[in-house]
Task: inverse folding
């Protein structure tokens, strides 16, 4: 992290980050799961311009990337134990080849079928987030101060655990503002709001807020606020699932965590 002073009124804030590591996962099962390899990078540049002591603007450009890898495989026998299912039922439903009484020995067929491995937790994913933001602080009058901003956000991700062909993209647009009014020497009123629109939703989320601070005396303030918040689900929350499949792609377990509309 660093700062470059361009002039008496302008400055650049630069943030650079890089992470490499392994994330441990739940080990309470009867078999070991692979650790998850995590790679991440973060870059941000922010230009700040001061017009006066209490007014100015800032423009921020940020890019975030991540990569996560985990590949844990279990046998059908272990899967039957995890799910509490009869092993013969699992073998009959998921075996590569059905039992043929004319050619197969039953005990050998069961052992070979239950020994087939499947992907238990295939969590291979990567993503990228690009963010552009503008914010400005103004003083329209001696008793008022206005802060407003707008932002653009673009997300893209690919994962083995999203309910699509494996990739998602989305854009969001944001407009926000807050007006601060010194009504009296003791009372301060804040009126603000946030409007957000997503490219994958034909809808507009509005989040207004009204707050009042009243100074009762030295060291004592009475505060009250009324707000309504609305937020769209993230790409992952809207499309995540957990899939256990055989080598030929047949699903064994499919659990949806969300269907949107959160």
Result:
């Amino acid at each position: 992290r660093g700062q470059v002073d361009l002039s008496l009124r302008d400055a650049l804030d630069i943030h650079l980050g890089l992470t490499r590591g392994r994330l441990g996962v739940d080990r309470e099962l009867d078999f070991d799961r692979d650790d998850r390899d995590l790679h991440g990078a973060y870059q941000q540049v922010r230009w700040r311009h001061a017009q006066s002591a209490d007014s100015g603007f800032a423009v921020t450009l940020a890019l975030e990337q991540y990569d996560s890898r985990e590949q844990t495989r279990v046998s059908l026998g272990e899967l039957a134990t995890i799910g509490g299912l009869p092993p013969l039922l699992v073998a009959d439903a998921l075996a590569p080849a059905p039992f043929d009484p004319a050619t197969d020995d039953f005990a050998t067929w069961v052992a070979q079928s239950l020994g087939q491995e499947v992907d238990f937790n295939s969590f291979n994913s990567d993503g990228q987030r690009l963010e552009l933001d503008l914010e400005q602080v103004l003083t329209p009058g001696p008793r008022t101060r206005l802060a407003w901003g707008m932002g653009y956000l673009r997300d893209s991700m690919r994962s083995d655990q999203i309910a699509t062909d494996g990739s998602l993209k989305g854009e969001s647009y944001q407009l926000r503002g807050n007006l601060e009014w010194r009504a009296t020497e003791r009372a301060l009123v804040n009126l603000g709001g946030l409007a957000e629109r997503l490219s994958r939703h034909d809808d507009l989320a509005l989040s207004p807020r009204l707050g009042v601070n009243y100074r009762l005396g030295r060291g004592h303030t009475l505060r009250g606020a009324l707000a309504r918040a609305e937020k769209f689900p993230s790409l992952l929350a809207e499309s995540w699932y957990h899939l256990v499949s055989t080598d030929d792609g047949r699903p064994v377990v499919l659990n949806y965590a969300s269907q949107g509309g959160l």
User: Anything to note?
Assistant: The two ends are 36 Å apart (CA to CA). The chain has a mean pLDDT of 81. Residues 133 and 151 are 4 Å apart (CA to CA).
